[in-house]
Amino acid sequence: MLQFRKMQSRKTGALKVTEGHQSPPMTMSSIKIECVLRENCHCGESPVWEEASNSLLFVDIPAKKVCRWNALSKQVQRVTLDAPVSSVALRQAGGYVATVGTKFCALNWEDESAVVLAAVDKDKKNNRFNDGKVDPAGRYFAGTMAEETAPAVLERHQGSLYALFADHHVEKYFDQVDISNGLDWSLDHKIFYYIDSLSYSVDAFDYDLQTGKISNRRSIYKMEKEEHIPDGMCIDTEGKLWVACYNGGRVIRLDPETGKRLQTVKLPVDKTTSCCFGGKDYSEMYVTCARDGLDPQGLLQQPEAGGIFKITGLGVKGLPPYPYAG
Ligand SMILES: O=C(O)[C@H](O)[C@@H](O)[C@H](O)[C@H](O)CO
Ligand SMILES: [Zn+2]
Fold it and tell me: Where is substrate bound in this sequence (predicted)?
């Protein structure tokens, strides 16, 4: 039985999913999962859709790379930086911003240069940034963690959550973070959702968009055992959260109001790290994943590990990413 389930989860291609409990089903959606780019990322992360160029931006953290995959031409451009790059975001002024090592940087794609905007965790030499995302008011939120000796093996409580404001000043929200990860904001901008991976929880805070202040932390979902480690996250236009499950080989859709899981979509790779919506009207989901941490057998069974996956037929859309305002 276990073996059978495992084989099922390895299957790619079209599979029929019936929604709701009507019989006969009133709505059928055909979910398709496709590896659109075999990038062999050590640790792919931070997928961001750039509508203007019809591209998906993402990073490979340990490879110190920011990549841009054009969905029309299928070509990839890569910029290599001098430290692990853990997230990338659009910038209102043009170009991008990225978290590089423990620095918030502005990235000029044309000349491949990175300019430091601010630095954090100066007293913590073993730290680096991890996941980051821009809030609806243009602040770049990102958290830190101790560098891992192996996936999810690290000195605990070393990370903090920060935001880079438009005037380039940085605010620190809290410390004691293990692995700062997924983040997004509710549709009314009144809630900030956040994941510290090793808490195995998806948390929510009240959010004040005017000031960027957060308060009243609570858990809205505790991971099930087979879902493993919560990693990257994004919200859809129905206000539901999508969480990539590291080691769980899936993305799950959560209702933050009821705390219930609404849907599970399995992928043919175990180390799914993050997800975002993109493509036409943000109706496609893109998922990043990692190769690092797989043993030789795992690499043989999951040849697309480290690639970029596209999921279509979900029947739900996402939102455009917010650009950094500074
Ligand atoms: O992608 C990330 O967010 C981290 O940088 C990764 O290293 C893994 O997610 C982590 O090991 C599992 O939590
Ligand atoms: Zn992550």
Answer: 128, 130, 148
